[in-house]
Structures are given as structure tokens and as C-alpha cells.
């Protein structure tokens, strides 16, 4: 079992930055690829990006590429989502998730999920 707890969400003005964190406990963090997803009102959960076990590779949704950056610190059992140039349409609940896959990009490839953290971007 892996427990994931996100933090760092909140209210931010459009154009501003925000960094989310996700701390893992339980099994060995470095054995899992980590991903971020978002759930916007009235929409389905959407892939944001993912990072491989050791952090050597990342992959992003096209709409987030260039604005969002995922990184991880395996010594701290933490994965981060740095979000820059935020837009009102980025308003959503953001979830981190853990996967045994090398580079998981779809929901079904993830084994564990956090509870999510709300991000609200005001215009």
C-alpha cells in the first residue's frame, strides 16, 4: 500500500505560480512512477504529467507542456508539480498518483491515488 497526501493548493491570480506537493508513505517511493491529474468541474479526470521512478524522464499533456513541471525528491518521498502562468481554466482538483508502470499516462495504469488538492485561479 502507498498513501499519498497532496498539499499546496489554494487561490491564485491568473498568471501566477503555484507549487503542489505530494508526500508518499508506505512502500518504497522510488519503485513507483508518479503522475498528476486534474479534475475540473463538469469534466473527466485529465492527465497532467508524469515522472519516472528515478526522475530521469517526464511527460506532459500537450495543454500543460511548457507551463507545468514535475519533479521528485526520492529522499523526501515527495513529488512536485510546479505550475506557472496559471489560467482560470486550470481551476480544478489536482491529484497525485503512483504507478508500477514506467511512464503511465492513463488513469487505469495507476495503482494509488491521493485525495486531491483544490486549485482555484481567479481572473
Break the fold down into its secondary structure elements and pairings.
Elements: E1 2-7, E2 10-13, E3 18-26, E4 33-39, E5 46-51, E6 58-60, E7 68-73, E8 78-83, E9 92-99, E10 112-113, E11 117-122
Parallel strand pairs: 2-11
Antiparallel strand pairs: 1-3, 3-8, 4-5, 4-9, 5-6, 7-8, 9-10, 9-11
Characterization of this structure:
By secondary structure, the chain is mainly beta. The protein is built from no helices and eleven strands. The chain has strands at residues 2-7, 10-13, 18-26, 33-39, 46-51, 58-60, 68-73, 78-83, 92-99, 112-113, 117-122. The strands form two sheets. Strands 2, 4, 5, 6, 9, 10 and 11 form a seven-stranded mixed β-sheet that branches. Strands 1-3-8-7 form a four-stranded antiparallel β-sheet, with no helix packed on it. The model has no long low-confidence stretch (mean pLDDT 96).
Please sum up the structure shown:
0% of the residues lie in helices and 51% in strands.
- What multimeric state do the chains show? single chain
The secondary-structure class comes to mainly beta
User: How would the global form be characterised?
Assistant: globular
> What's the main sheet like?
7 strands, mixed
> How many E-type strands?
11
Radius of gyration: 13 Å
Q: Which ranges are low-confidence, i.e. pLDDT below 50, for 5 or more consecutive residues? A: none
What proportion strand?
over 45%
Overall pLDDT score: 96
* Order of helix and strand elements from N to C terminus: EEEEEEEEEEE
Amino acid at each position: 500500500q502507498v498513501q499519498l497526501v497532496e498539499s499546496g493548493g489554494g487561490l491564485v491570480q491568473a498568471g501566477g505560480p503555484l507549487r503542489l506537493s505530494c508526500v508518499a508513505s508506505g512502500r518504497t517511493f522510488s519503485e513507483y512512477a508518479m503522475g498528476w491529474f486534474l479534475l475540473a468541474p463538469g469534466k473527466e479526470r485529465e492527465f497532467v504529467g508524469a515522472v519516472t521512478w528515478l526522475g530521469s524522464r517526464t511527460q506532459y499533456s500537450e495543454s500543460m507542456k511548457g507551463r507545468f513541471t514535475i519533479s521528485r525528491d526520492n529522499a523526501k518521498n515527495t513529488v512536485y508539480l510546479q505550475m506557472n502562468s496559471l489560467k482560470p481554466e486550470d481551476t480544478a482538483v489536482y491529484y497525485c498518483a503512483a504507478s508500477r508502470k514506467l511512464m503511465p499516462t492513463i488513469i487505469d495504469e495507476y495503482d494509488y491515488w491521493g485525495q486531491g488538492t483544490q486549485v482555484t485561479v481567479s481572473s
